[in-house]
Design a protein that fits this description.
This protein has 101 residues and is of the alpha+beta class. It has a single domain, classed as Winged helix-like DNA-binding domain superfamily/Winged helix DNA-binding domain (Arc Repressor Mutant, subunit A, Orthogonal Bundle). The chain is built from 5 helices and 3 strands, in the order H-H-E-H-H-E-E-H. A 3-stranded antiparallel beta sheet has the order 1-3-2. Strand 2 and strand 3 form a beta hairpin. The radius of gyration is 16 Å and the shape is globular.
Length: 101
């Protein structure tokens, strides 16, 4: 089987990739993504699902939002977070499948 040739990454692209992996390198952030990947959830729902404190969840949600991985939508007093980048979930699934081999 012949491997596809791919372009090399530029230094800037490698920095961006490393930054994305750094954001995903925290298990609690992956747990949050697991909760919000199917439908947007409120902060309280994420707290309940993960068992973490609201302060801890809020800190991680801010990082995920800044990185462009999740969306943030306000509805009255409540804020809902959902997946902005579904490829991130696919990436996690690929890594998991590879580890399961």
């Amino acid at each position: 089987m012949q491997e596809k040739k791919r372009k090399s990454f530029t230094a800037k692209q490698l920095e961006q990739i490393a930054a994305r992996f750094k954001v995903l390198g925290e298990p609690m952030r992956l747990r949050i993504l697991e909760v919000v990947c199917r439908e947007p959830r409120s902060v309280n729902e994420i707290v309940e699902a993960t068992g973490a404190t609201q302060a801890n969840i809020s800190k991680h949600l801010a990082i995920l939002t800044t990185a462009g991985i999740v969306t943030r939508e306000k509805d009255g007093q409540r804020v809902f977070y959902g997946m902005k980048d579904p490829l991130t979930v696919k990436l996690c699934e690929l890594v998991h499948a590879n580890l399961a081999k």
